[in-house]
């Protein structure tokens, strides 16, 4: 079932999660154990992230270096297929611009379609650690809106080979990312809304937000989207704060603000155990307020760790 169909048919707010594929060399059973502990809350769908290949340089002697590509995590396509097979739950693989040519993307989408995976979340993707900024594949896409357009074209039976006649149209439900506190590369919030509207005009049917800890930021984001004519479902992304270091790490890596009230409570904590309790309670209150507001879905960034999300879900669902 498509994400939009889940939302339309739901009688109450849905519970969904995002997970990370296991690292190379890890057992998938570890991932399954995390998902197992959350299945009683009946996730409508499970997002699976994609992590780009990264480069390492191997010394070859005489001052020479050889550039090697390493894959940190197993393929998202295979993980999605495994999850759907094991749990009979729809999956939403992340499809990114970085590291892919247009042909690579088309082949990946064909594989997903053959496997019966008909939801995708389209992202530009982050730069690899060895590069100062995002650099697209020479034969790929620079922007998420362009990648969305490619998927939308395949839904119309339009493939890269323009001589392909009567091609089978795919049936992907396309999602895009939204940033209530602005994408860090965007010059201002107004411009960010124009970029988001371009994604929707290209074919995005739902939006999943970056995590936030201040619901007012989400409410204002939704209101502004509607003013811009962005009328697709907007799914809030949530994560329980779990360590003392999150006060500095989350703003640094995700370019978001921690509300004063939350920061003060975490600052009082003596250790991570106390910080987790504060994070759980804050997230529970966020969830309750969001449900009262009428959000279609509560989407949790689990980082493939279920403990805190389970404690929140027990009090909300």
Please give a structural write-up.
This protein is α/β, with parallel strands linked by helices and 317 residues long. The chain contains eleven helices and ten strands. Strands 1-2-5-6-7-8-9-10 form an eight-stranded parallel β-barrel, surrounded by five helices. It has a two-stranded antiparallel sheet with strand order 3-4. The mean pLDDT is 91.
Question: Main traits of this protein?
Answer:
317 residues, alpha/beta, 41% helix
List the helices and strands and how they pair.
Blueprint: H1 3-9, E1 14-19, H2 28-36, E2 45-48, E3 54-61, E4 64-70, H3 76-87, E5 90-96, H4 102-114, E6 119-123, H5 144-155, E7 173-178, H6 189-202, E8 206-211, H7 215-227, E9 234-238, H8 246-254, H9 260-267, H10 272-293, E10 297-301, H11 307-316
Parallel strand pairs: 1-2, 1-10, 2-5, 5-6, 6-7, 7-8, 8-9, 9-10
Antiparallel strand pairs: 3-4
């Amino acid at each position: 079932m498509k994400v939009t169909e889940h939302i339309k048919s739901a009688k109450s707010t849905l519970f969904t999660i995002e997970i990370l594929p296991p690292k190379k060399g890890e057992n998938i059973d570890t991932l399954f154990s995390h998902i197992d502990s959350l299945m009683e809350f009946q996730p409508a769908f499970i997002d699976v992230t994609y992590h780009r290949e990264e480069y390492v340089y191997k010394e070859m002697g005489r001052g020479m270096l050889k550039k090697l590509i390493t894959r940190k995590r197993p393929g998202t396509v295979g993980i999605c297929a495994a999850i759907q097979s094991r749990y009979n739950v729809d999956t939403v693989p992340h499809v990114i611009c970085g590291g892919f040519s247009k042909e690579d993307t088309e082949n990946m989408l064909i594989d997903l379609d053959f496997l019966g995976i008909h939801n995708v979340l389209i992202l530009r993707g982050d730069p690899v650690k060895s590069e100062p900024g995002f650099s697209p594949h020479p034969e790929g896409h620079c922007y998420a809106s362009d990648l969305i357009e490619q998927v939308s074209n395949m839904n119309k039976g339009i493939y890269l080979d323009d001589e392909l006649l009567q091609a089978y149209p795919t049936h992907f439900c396309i999602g895009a990312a939204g940033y209530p506190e602005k994408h860090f590369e965007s010059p201002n919030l107004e411009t960010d809304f124009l970029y988001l509207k371009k994604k929707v005009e290209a074919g995005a049917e739902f939006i999943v937000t970056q995590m936030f800890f201040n619901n007012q930021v989400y409410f204002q984001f939704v209101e502004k989207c509607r003013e811009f004519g962005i009328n697709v479902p907007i799914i809030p992304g949530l994560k329980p704060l779990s360590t003392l270091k999150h006060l500095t790490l989350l703003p640094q890596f995700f370019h978001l603000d921690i509300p004063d009230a939350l920061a003060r409570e975490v600052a009082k904590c003596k250790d991570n155990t106390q910080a987790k309790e504060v994070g759980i309670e804050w997230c529970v209150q966020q969830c309750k307020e969001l449900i009262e507001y009428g959000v279609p879905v509560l989407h949790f960034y689990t980082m493939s760790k279920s403990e805190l999300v389970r404690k929140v879900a027990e009090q909300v669902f």
